[in-house]
Design a protein that fits this description.
mainly alpha, Penicillin binding protein transpeptidase fold, 2 domains
Length: 245
């Protein structure tokens, strides 16, 4: 007598519906993870590339160029920038630049204590924001900045971080980089900037759209005096050693 074949149990209607619901979500998750992995590899590739290749454009430069119709910007090697300009920007923006790994924990704690009155971003963080991200504040941007900053610190020498920063920072509306700024304000080249001109340029960086390096208020001129002194101090006490050799 022929043996009856055992038929597979037919899944219940609710089991079939659950499986059909799970399959597309698994596929979506798989593709999302692949996309995330590709994005991470792309960013890592750009970080490594920009160690030796100058960033051709940034989101801020592109958006301002589109809004204004034109911008002022020319790349200049750090060897062609007056050393006092490099020291001045460090003194003004991140005096402990040579002594941290991308985050100045002391400055961050001070910023948390003082709230919006004080910023805690290092030059490395600002470079990451300017080169890879956007200017508008958001939790997403800060999270990405926090992830990218250690990568840049690990991949780039300190001198390279300053070189990129000085070439992508905005010094006035539509004026990007130290070469354009030196000519825009003082009709000179970056290698001929004096200590006081350098301090004036460094002093406007936190708010370049509302400050004029050639026409500063009395309060800002006192700030310039502090930057001049700070640049001399970090040279004397060794805090410029990581970018001056």
């Amino acid at each position: 007598m022929a043996k009856k074949t055992k038929q597979a149990r037919k899944p219940k209607r609710d089991e079939r519906t659950l499986w059909q619901w799970l399959v597309p979500w698994r596929s979506i998750r798989r593709w999302a993870l692949r996309g995330l992995g590709a994005a991470v590899l792309l960013v890592l590739g750009l970080v490594l590339l920009y160690r030796v290749v100058n960033p051709p454009i940034t989101h801020t430069i592109w958006s301002e160029g589109r809004r204004l119709g034109r911008i002022e910007r020319n790349w200049v090697d750090i060897d062609d920038i007056a050393p006092v300009m490099v020291r001045s920007v460090v003194a003004a923006e991140d005096a402990n630049f040579c002594h941290h790994w991308g985050f100045d924990m002391g400055a961050i704690r001070a910023a948390l204590r003082e709230g919006a009155r004080r910023g805690g971003s290092t030059i490395t963080q600002q470079t990451v924001k300017n080169v890879f991200l956007w200017q508008e504040r958001s939790w997403l941007r800060k999270a990405l900045e926090a992830m990218l900053t250690p990568m840049v610190e690990a991949a780039w020498p300190k001198r390279r971080i300053l070189e990129v920063y000085l070439n992508v920072a905005e010094f006035d509306t539509g004026v990007f980089g130290i070469e354009a700024a030196a000519w825009h304000y003082f009709k000179t080249t970056p290698d001929k900037l004096t200590a006081r001109q350098a301090a004036r340029l460094a002093a406007i960086l936190p708010d370049p759209k509302n400050r004029n390096a050639a026409d500063l208020s009395r309060r800002m001129l006192r700030r310039v005096d502090g930057v001049v002194d700070g640049a001399a101090t970090i040279q004397a006490d060794g805090r410029a050693s990581c970018f001056e050799g």
